[in-house]
Amino acid sequence: MKKIYLAGPDVFRHDALAHGRQLVNILKSRGYIGLFPLDNLIPEAQDPAETARSIFQANRQMIDDADAVLANLSPFRGPSADCGTVWECGYAHAQKKPVIGYRSALTRTYKDAVLSQQGQDELLVEDFGLWDNLMLVYGIDQVSSSLEEALGHLADLVLPSKS
After folding, report:
1. Could you tell me the CATH number of the domain that includes residue 56?
2. Strand segments (E) across the chain
3. 162 belongs to a structural domain
4. What is the pTM of this model?
5. How many domains does the structure of the chain reveal?
6. Interatomic CA distance for residues 87 and 91, integer angstroms
7. Cβ distance 139 to 7 under 8 Å?
């Protein structure tokens, strides 16, 4: 079975473990193995930076082991996708793995999202009419406005293998 890494800020939800199980089960019902970051067993370290390094290494290994990435690219704590998720997408893209995203707001432009935030500065905002920064938009193989639609694109790009 093909392995799919589940990227996104879903790990910060209050119900993250239950939500992760739900995503893994959805993928399983479609013939995939879902790799959810919170499934990693991270040894507790006294130093928070060492714990963070262990999380990074474990998640990177999951992406290395995956055949594709399915990413929640919904705006997270700002006008853009979660920066950790964006890194994971770029890392997978560099390995030439399919990266399929879904996002709650595809109709709002990145410029409108940035300008709606408080505390504007004097810097220019890119204005290409895209749903996020152009480097993310063109680094994703396919993006959808729902998880269900993204799963359809996943099937197009990553055919399920026989068990």
Report:
1. 3.40.50.450
2. 2-7, 32-35, 68-72, 99-102, 142-144
3. no
4. 0.89
5. 1
6. 6
7. no
| 123 domain residue, yes or no | yes
Cβ atoms of 34 and 27 within 8 Å: the answer is yes
CB contact at 8 A, 68 and 153: no
First to last CA, the chain: 5
**In the structure, how many helices (H) and strands (E) does the chain have?**
6, 5
Chain centroid to CA 5: 8
Its domain, for residue 111, covers 2-157
Pairing of β 99-102 and β 32-35 = unpaired
Does residue 163 form part of some domain?
no
pLDDT band at 104 (very low <50, low <70, confident <90, very high): confident
- Banded model confidence at residue 160, pLDDT cuts 50, 70, 90: low
